[in-house]
Write a structure and sequence with these properties.
about 200 residues; alpha/beta; 8-stranded mixed β-sheet; about 25% helix; globular
């Protein structure tokens, strides 16, 4: 199951709180909802719809899962929401209890066993395992070499600081740009795949 990362990203690499002001204020982040003026249904929305269509399952960190699980079930009846709600979902968390997993088809992966379990999913299951948001989890997956594709919606805005998905351990990782599309609002939708060694 190839692992596909789908992220809204600023020009300076920030992915924190793209959806709203209260989504994630860690570190005093005050720009929540910064993507709204750049979103367009055809290009940006189309990139997410395409990723979801090819997904066999979804993978989240705890904070992103909680945000999504609070929003998507009530949107039932919309084709995108129905697909989101029906797909198998995995959430990495050391603190969520099974009784809190109220979003349909959610399975908890214990944080202390996450890398091994995700590696197992990647090696044994067909279709894409799509990760949305979840910067801490994505950083760990990139560090472990478990990401097969990055689909980045790069917005023409600088945020001056905030959470990123990129590891800071000094490792060199080469990617191959396989497609790019520009929206009318200036968003670059760039798809990168892991380049072959050598």
């Amino acid at each position: 199951m190839p692992i596909v990362i789908t992220e809204f990203m600023s020009l300076d690499g920030v992915v924190q709180a793209p959806g709203g002001p209260e989504e994630d204020t860690d570190g005093g982040f005050a720009h929540g909802g910064w993507t709204h003026s750049f979103f367009d249904a055809e290009v940006v929305g189309g990139a997410f719809a395409d990723a979801l269509t090819k997904a066999e399952a979804l993978l989240f960190g705890r904070r992103t899962w909680k945000s999504m699980s609070a929003a998507w079930p009530e949107r039932a009846g919309d084709p995108f929401a129905d697909r989101m709600n029906s797909l198998p979902k995995y959430v990495v968390s050391q603190t969520l209890r099974d009784s809190e997993l109220t979003w349909d088809n959610t399975t908890r992966i214990s944080g202390d066993k996450a890398i091994d379990r995700i590696r197992e999913l990647r090696e044994t299951t067909e279709g894409n395992l799509v990760v949305m948001g979840s910067p801490t989890l994505v950083r760990a997956l990139l560090s472990e070499g478990l990401v097969d594709e990055l689909r980045l919606m790069i917005m023409p805005v600088l945020l001056g600081g905030g959470k990123t998905i990129f590891p800071d351990g000094g490792g060199l990782r080469t990617l191959e740009l396989v497609s790019t599309v520009t929206s009318g609002t200036g968003v670059q939708v760039c798809t990168y795949r892991t380049a072959a060694e050598g």
